[in-house]
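S.,

Sequence below, as promised.
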Amino acid sequence: MRHVVGHGERVVEGVAVITSGEAVAADAVGGQHQRMEPSAPRAAVTTHADADVDVDVLVVGAGVSGLGTAAFLQARGHVGRVVVVEAASEPGGYCRTVQQDGFTFDYAGHFFHFRDPSIHAFITERLPAGDEHALVEVVRRASVIDVDGHEVPYPYQGHLRTLPTDAARRCLVDLWHAERALDVDDDAPSSFQAWLRRRYGRGLCERFLEPYNAKLYGDLAALDATCMGRFFPDARFADVMAATAGRAWGYNATFTYPRRGAVTYIDALRRDLDPKDLWLGEPVVAVDLDAHVARTPSRRVRYRHLVMTGPLPQTLRLTGLAHDPTVFSASRVLVFNLGFDRRSAHDDVHWRYVARADVPFYRVGSYSAIAGGDRMSLYVEVGLGVDGAVDVSANQGAVLRGLRDIGVVRDERFVSGHHVVMDPAYVHLTPRGMAATTAARTTLASHGVHAIGRYGAWTYCSIEDNLLAARALADEIAVRAS
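The prediction came back faster than expected:
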């Protein structure tokens, strides 16, 4: 087997650092400093003559949230100048696409679920003629590999009938007892882990829910009980019994994927943005809240509204606002995009969620199972701690072995590899962090700074949620302008 260690990047929304070699030294986002970070000295008030450019709306970050804000403003006929500034050399954030060795890889596995038809229409109507036919509407096929290696359809709790009898009985009995206890236990669970145990019982938690989510998030006992919100599929005992009897059950039954990658949607969002108003390779290095001036390495920009879509702790540092960085933490994820010389007989599932402790990744997705083709193309996600060096080569070897262990890869030859360190990846929603986030965003808003998006708002949400927030902000700015 020839091991191919492809090109890679460490990515922060709005910041990309190209990496090379076998290891990546990735910085943590918060949590590493056990001290209060003081406010930076405010720069002297900048006069109008000191500003190189005047804009109405300055958007920092050319990902979905940033480009979405600009697109919605333009759709509403906003007459003021809107500029999007991005540290990376190309737009897209985590929705960038890489064409390599004939494969189409995304920075992460983005498959789009649109619950709001108007959001879906807003994007698709901006696609170039013909591109709308390149969208694949797919009926979701997903499976779960539990701690014992049993592969069952997703969601796990809806397909207990496929487990060995003793394992299924244990899960059902524990779920029944947990549900009965909810009627008499009024105390709020202290953590996400406590909520899982209380809601689903020991059997489901030990076989799948806890080991899988620990791979993804880390310490479940540190997370707020409400951290997953609507994104965690509910399971009532009656529903599980009905599914056990054969009734179909699942969520997000269909999704959309563009054949030429997630960048298709990025291109749609930037369609009407004047190229001279998209500044690439130009990070914002400081913000003067009093003067409403943002500074990049090459110019000073006076704004009326500032939209920040990068990680909230980064925004607080740039603006000089006092904050405790220890309350903001997030997991990192090492994403491998892997190309093989041909399709596997088991390349028939869009996602596999893997709880097995001896397999390093928590999820593997298949581009080729969605978009077709005669070569297998996978993305694999490995959860990382909040800090420390990342040995890409060692992780890639472990991933390839894991793919063979779970049967996705047999004798197919690995021919192309690309990796990305997502930093941050999943925000740790803790009680202290959530309170600090609310306070920080309120303070920023009082200075005309709008922190939005998954990382700007420091939350857990979908791509559609980001677009809904961008639309709401565009409406707010439009109302103020009128």
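The longest strand covers residues 332-340.

Coffee later?
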